[in-house]
Amino acid sequence: MLKRTMYKVNGACVTVGFMAIGPLQNNVYFITDGTATCMVDPSCDADTLVEALGGVKLDAIVVTHRHYDHIGAVAQVKKKTGALVIASTADAPYIAGEQPDPDGHPGSEPCAVDQRVSDGDIIQLGNMAWRVIETPGHTPGSMCLYLDPQFGSNPGGAPVLVSGDTLFSGAAGRTDFAGGSLSDMKHSLKKLSTLPDNTIVLPGHNEITTIAAERERTFAYYGSLG
Known about the structure:
Elements (H helix, E strand, L loop, with lengths): L6 E3 L5 E7 L4 E7 L4 E4 L5 H7 L7 E3 L5 H4 L2 H8 L2 E5 L3 H4 L19 E3 L4 E4 L2 E7 L8 E5 L12 E5 L2 E2 L2 E2 L9 H11 L7 E4 L5 E2 H5 L2 H7 L2
Parallel strand pairs: 4-5, 5-6, 6-7, 11-14
Antiparallel strand pairs: 1-2, 2-3, 3-4, 8-9, 9-10, 10-11, 12-13, 14-15
Helix pairs in contact: 1-3
């Protein structure tokens, strides 16, 4: 088991740490308000991820979309922690093994999805009330989660957006996989562009960013495509 660096995200309305892990250097997030803890997109190496919890109870595993590099350790982390698995209604059948991966990627161990969510749903974890924002484009069931500071443990901190592979620092997710859609991606990015400028964006890969930064580059670029 390799030792991984846990990075901290400063200035958010909740406590956020993350590890860059796996062949594609996925960001696996650990988010807590002190009353509940969730892990986002456990990509691989379940033992390392569970050890990183430091004995803290894991309440939920949130999956932003179905791709293998985001779900590779979901089943094993669930077995080791008993945490609930939460995913979008559209992508849940692939995570649960009810449907085969349409991209033909290496198969991940199927895992039951305990809570299937749709646009506008609220995921309540402790005092955190995460709003589900459906953001198809990368996959039909891609979703983001938004947390307003009033529901965080640090009300003076910035809002948080878990963006998966929809929004990155300076880029948006690929749309050339099965079920991907450029027109859907543009619509999804337009939805995200309405969030407050100071929102901290936690993407599935690469560095942390903000809505303000992406307003000047990613939103502007995709908006220019018509």
